[in-house]
Amino acid sequence: MAQALDxxxxxxxxLPDVPKEQxxxxxxxxxxxxxxxxxxxxxxxxxxxxxxxxxxxTPSQLSSTARDCAQALINQLLTTCPITSSSDGIMxxxxxxxxxxxxxxxxxxxxxxxxxxxxxxxxxxxxxxxEGKMVYDEETKEWVPKWGYKGRNKEGEDDxxxxxxxxxxxxxxxxxxxxxxxxxxxxxxxxxxxxxRRERANERKGRRKGDGGG
Length: 214
Hints:
Layout: H1 2-11, H2 20-23, E1 39-41, E2 46-48, H3 59-80, E3 83-86, E4 89-92, H4 115-123, E5 134-137, E6 142-145, H5 166-174, H6 183-210
Antiparallel strand pairs: 1-2, 3-4, 5-6
């Protein structure tokens, strides 16, 4: 067995010795100089190397070129970007990117403004600041929803006794409507139906305008 191993070792080609300073990456210089200077886009952490590669480059040549580019980028970051220290650690502030990148998806199509949006733009009406969905009830000392199940908009609908509003009662009498019982619920439902009719009318008008109609 020992003789077979000796014969196999003798048949293997002898590799040339590589100097230690070339095989150890820690001994490579941090100063990188090229015939054509690098260009940088630090905002995108990008380095452009315009120096041509040799025909049919070997893996070691590609690795050496990539190493030089990475070292040049690190040198540029450390010498041009401000570095600060905070409780979160050491931070480096990058400049704005200069290389435009393509979008993954097309730009969204702008929606046709509604009738109210056109009216508000014409009159200079600005949208009110959106508030939360809950409101504080001073009587129960609890937060309740503004609308929907147990919503504030249904306040008083289930009261067994209701204070009458003379003006509203007179208007109901002139219209031939019945008494006050359940009127709060009917009024609310009627408002919902009116809003739905307006929304359908606006949708039909928007479709006619989109099809080239008046």
